[in-house]
Design brief:
It contains no helices and eleven strands. The protein is mainly beta and 111 residues long.
Length: 111
């Protein structure tokens, strides 16, 4: 059973940075792709970034050049470094792996 726990969210001014972490339990971490998604009230959850088991990333167009996804297989943790944050990045951020979602972490960017 995979469990995912996100951390690192918070309140930041526009132009600032945050780093989100997602710690996973379970033995299949190193062979799975892991994604970060975000959701705002009334909207569907959307992909922000995903990283495959060899570390190849894919980003949503809206975050390219600003966000970086990375993983540490030894620590079973995936990170999302978010720079040059904008108010429209405000959302609950979730990580996803192997059919499981974390509980989410709130990111709020003030203008």
């Amino acid at each position: 059973q995979v469990q995912l726990v996100e951390s690192g969210g918070g309140l930041v001014q526009a132009g600032g940075s945050l780093r989100l972490s997602c710690a996973a339990s379970g033995s299949a971490f190193s062979i799975n792709a892991i994604g970060w998604y975000r959701q705002t009230p009334g909207k569907q959850r959307s992909l922000v970034a995903i990283i495959n088991f060899i570390g190849g990333p894919t980003y949503a167009d809206s975050v390219k050049g600003r966000f970086t996804i990375s993983r540490d297989n030894a620590k079973k943790t995936v990170y999302l470094q978010m720079n040059s944050l904008k108010p429209e990045d405000t959302a609950v951020y979730y990580c996803y792996m192997a059919g499981q979602w974390g509980q989410g972490t709130q990111v709020t960017v003030s203008s």
